[in-house]
Amino acid sequence: MKCFSTSTNIQATPETIWDILVDGTKWVQWNTTIVKVEGKIALGETVTVYTKIDPERAFSVKVSEIVPHQRMVWTGRMPLGLFKGERTYSLSKQLNGSVEFSMKEIFSGLMAPLISKSIPDLQPSFDEFAAALKRKAEETA
Questions:
Q1: What is the domain-level CATH number for residue 16?
Q2: What is the mean pLDDT of residues 36-58?
Q3: Are 125 and 31 in contact (CB under 8 A)?
Q4: Domains in the chain: how many in total?
């Protein structure tokens, strides 16, 4: 099982951060790792993301869970449980008033060992996503 994760503390409200996260049309304005986002980020919707890692390749995922201002899960899968990618975005209010943002993606399934070999190292883009979200949210707050 392959996994990537990142986290950062943001000096902004969960509502401010959430509003930025669910507005995919504006991701390219603040996130240097994204080329384009198509689709509405809403429960049950399909979102297609184009990244700078491989701009010619699109990643289509379904928004499978939303708990406003707290958690959002995107899932991409192959039939029969052969391969699944699940990305979780989480916001957790801290005692000092900041919000811990975390993002984690886990790849699993019968074909995960084989397919995972072709997945590029996503860690730098995960770290940049978190840093860019922090900058945007703190500018907005």
A1: 3.30.530.20
A2: 92
A3: no
A4: 1
Which residues pair with residue 3 across a beta bridge?
106
Domain that holds residue 71: 2-140
Mean predicted confidence (pLDDT) in 46-69:
92
| Cα–Cα distances in angstroms (integers) from residue 79 to residues 66, 84, 109, in the given order | 23, 9, 10
Whether the full predicted model's pTM is greater than 0.90, yes or no, is: yes
Is residue 128 within 8 Å of 136, Cβ to Cβ?
no
The 3-state DSSP class for residue 7 equals strand
Q: Render the burial of 31-69: b for 16+ CB within 10 Å, e for the rest.
A: bebbbebebebeeeeebebbbeeeeeeeeebbbbebeeb
Q: Residue type at 61? A: V
Taking the C-alpha atoms of residue 101 and residue 92, their distance in angstroms, rounded to an integer, is 7
Q: In sequence order, what are the residues at sequence separation of 6 or more whose Cβ sits closer than 8 angstroms to the Cβ of residue 45? A: 39, 62, 63
